[in-house]
Amino acid sequence: MLYSAWPGGFVGPDQVAFVELLQTLLGCAVTRLQTQEGLHGAAVPVSVRQHWAALVRTGALQMHYQPLLNLATGRCGKVEALARLRDGERLLMPDEFLFALASDDLLELFARGLHQALADRRQWLAAGHDLAISINLPPAALNDIRYFEAAREALQTYACPSAQLTLEVLETEAFSLNEGQRSILGKFRALGVLLAQDDLGSGHSGLARLRELPFDWIKIDREIAHLDGDTALDALRVVYQVTRLGHSLGKLVLAEGVDSADLLAALAILGVDGAQGYVIARPMPAAQLPAWIARDEAREVHEAREAPGARAGESVLARLARFVVWEERVLMIAAAPGAARDLLKAAAVVANTPLADALVGLGDVLPAGEAREALQRDLLRALLEGGRESDAWRAARDRLMSAIAATAHETHAPEPVPSHTH
Ligand code: C2E
Ligand code: CA
Ligand code: CA
């Protein structure tokens, strides 16, 4: 719709032609928006945007909480707060409304969401559950000091220790931060809150930022850990190496979007610090969380009791993860001059010490037995003599993969095990 300040504003022939041209162009733009990949579906009418912006300001905001699992302890000590908007019967998800909000709406969303989360945290605390909060900080927050002020004010209001709050920062397109953004990030650090880099690997300049920015946590995007049949081994390798990279930079690493128990077990083997995903829990309203935590603690006690036999039925994915760690360890040691020869010698003698096992043994990748010993010798010799690119190594690895698949037949892990991954 076009409005004119004067009667008959658009009736001249040139004006009509201009307006028609404008209409065509806008039509093209809308079509392009609707078909462009990565952009959210349809264009949203202004009235709907205004309605959503109003919802944010009128108590329709409901934070839901998704548990983050600490893989070292097996416990949930932190939850991510995720925004939902109650619109009559419907509960709007962030994917539907976020992109349509203007910058002041986002600030409002952050401030109100944080207040709600810290209020909920206080309730959980009263019920005996001490949970830290992780909340999403839109990229604009690094250009707008009001976010920092909102965070400081909320922490004070709820007397929440700042280390109990993590802010999740999305990757942005900017390669590096400017002076002002650095200064705001510095203020957050000085406040004592933790910072997490969200969605690592989802695009943009993740690795450069990793080195440059003062994050405490890295959250690996679910696409990175996404598994489909024949890329499973490589997906695990990537997760493993990103985790090592994070650790060597002094950061903790969490994998997002974990949707199978097998993957969860594999991540723990790879040394990932935390996990989040539907297999642990879906986001839920604040009131449901205490019951979930209580169930989780009960389950943990139960599992601890069953632990000894657990490895026998370990999934393909878990075994692949053990293999990834083993392969890396052997190559690291073999890189030292002369070490390869010593390793081979060590493998020849039956040495049942934990160290010897760690150096030359496949550990629990396969059940103990003669077949394992033989395969282990072949693998080690191929890897140490031929190296990672050799045919001998590939052949030995294929045999191992088949053996893994055969031993894990009773589990429901992803089917085909890769024969050639490079
Ligand atoms: P995110 O920060 O990466 O949050 C995780 C999203 O992944 C959540 O979607 C969660 O429900 C979903 N998820 C968790 N586990 C799994 C899984 O196993 N499989 C799959 N397929 N998905 C899983 P949600 O709640 O729809 O949020 C989407 C995004 O919206 C968030 O992605 C975040 O970027 C943004 N967002 C959510 N709440 C807020 C907020 O309060 N403020 C701002 N600025 N952004 C928010
Ligand atoms: Ca997030
Ligand atoms: Ca994320």
From TrEMBL:
<protein>
    <submittedName>
        <fullName>EAL domain-containing protein</fullName>
    </submittedName>
</protein>
<dbReference type="Pfam" id="PF00563">
    <property type="entry name" value="EAL"/>
</dbReference>
<dbReference type="GO" id="GO:0071111">
    <property type="term" value="F:cyclic-guanylate-specific phosphodiesterase activity"/>
</dbReference>
<dbReference type="InterPro" id="IPR001633">
    <property type="entry name" value="EAL_dom"/>
</dbReference>
<dbReference type="InterPro" id="IPR050706">
    <property type="entry name" value="Cyclic-di-GMP_PDE-like"/>
</dbReference>
<dbReference type="InterPro" id="IPR035919">
    <property type="entry name" value="EAL_sf"/>
</dbReference>
<feature type="domain" description="EAL">
    <location>
        <begin position="45"/>
        <end position="297"/>
    </location>
</feature>
